[in-house]
Amino acid sequence: MKLFCASLATETNTFSPIPTGLDDFLLVRPEDIASGKNAFEDIQPLGLWKQRTVSRGDEFVFSLFGFAQPSGLTTGVAYESLRDEILDSLRSTGSVDIVLLNLHGAMVAEGYDDCEGDIIERVRDVVGPDVVVAVELDLHCHLTEKMVSLSDIIITYKEYPHVDINARAEELFNLALAAQQKKIRPTMALFDCHMMGMYPTNTKPMRRFIRAMVDAEQQDRVLSVSFGHGFPFGDVPDAGGKLVVITDNDQALAEEIATSLGQQLFALRHQINFPCLPLHEALSKARTLAADSQKLIVVADQSDNVGAGAPGDATYALAWLLAHQVPNVGMAIFYDPQVVRLALIAGIGSQLNIRLGGKLGPTSGDPLDLTVTVSGIQQDYQHRFPQIDLETGKESEPIYLPAGDVVALHCQGIDILVSSERAQCFSPCIFSDLGINPNDKSLLVVKSTQHFYGAFAPIASEVIYMAAPGAVSPIMQQIPYQRMRTDNKYPWVENPFMTEENQYMESETTHD
Q1: Distance CA 334, CA 416 (A)
Q2: By C-alpha distance, which of 410, 403, 342, 329 is closest to 375?
Q3: 506 pLDDT exceeds 70?
Q4: Which of 406, 449, 399, 456 is closest to 424 using CA atoms?
Q5: Taking the model in full, what pTM does it have?
Q6: How far apart are CA 288 and CA 328, in angstroms?
């Protein structure tokens, strides 16, 4: 048996002024693996797929791994050249039995609202109807009818933070293998929940909903259940939360379960979004709690999350902390390559006068003129994103993402981590790696929406979500949509299902 795999992923913030070009992609090709420049362990989940394939004695063909940090529209040239590289590789491979694709689901390029649908369509044109095409997506995806109709299997992550990437890759591999062996006939149904939001899966309502999804998968003939949350900062017509259910050759059952779970989720709509606080309220609460409890408080600066396409150089929170003289604070990760370059030249122990942040647009705030001491340096830093089962706490193989050169700067009781590449803060290990013990801090402010949670929550006495000014507000009604309809979605419409055509009664579902 021959398996072909490739990955092309970025999450497109269509409101971002920062274009995503070819140079923004981290690219790994077969020759990079052969030369020892990269190892498959560095490019999960492709490494898992290779391990499983080789252990079976099957042939594994790797084409391309391409990843770019979330940003603005991908240029047409960049998308088409990388897409065509994968397709050319597939053609030159000859006949294959399974195609495994690790995509994102919210990639938008010039001329392409649905890059993933376009890739899947072109892959299907190459391999024909009998080859199994299986796709793993980020749960912040725009699930489209094109994706569903042209692939055999689609699975999204279940967890936010995305700590189950490899677990879902294992599931996808097993289903693709069973489908190729004719043991199952995957049949998919899609249900539009008519919602847009951000739904952390560590909350009790979402934990119960995930258990309901897993319970549904235990039913006879049900193969997989995924909830694609949607990506709020991708303004395309297909954006929004959707359920996709896969059964073994039972379309009616797939539609029934997708509808039932979608209605259950909709009934939870008031309970599952982030409990965000404005900047002053969030930081005032954090300062008080830290002083009273003498324990670590973690604040998520959600509006400057690089993982959603923000610049990563917003200064609002730092300016507040400096103005209020809050001591013993750690902050990560600022994006400011000019400051990093100065710190690298000066070296550890040097004192510098710098202008930090506020450089990439009006949503970044004003730059801050600071006197800082360089306390730590890590060059070519790979930031660890732990993969943790939120139910059991068991860790699997972590994912590593590049942050470029990272420096630690000390200023008025605050340790500030600054990177030369845009990078989200995933784990407190970045503080430790720069010589700062995160457990000794009273307050940590992390530029992340939710991916920090799996690694930071165990060391925090409380986590506070902050809706500061910034490029990626977690408050949906503040996002200036032009192309995605809001007249048929919650939170703009309280119950878009209550129409003459569809008298879905909310009382039929259970509220937690």
Answers
A1: 8
A2: 410
A3: no
A4: 449
A5: 0.89
A6: 13
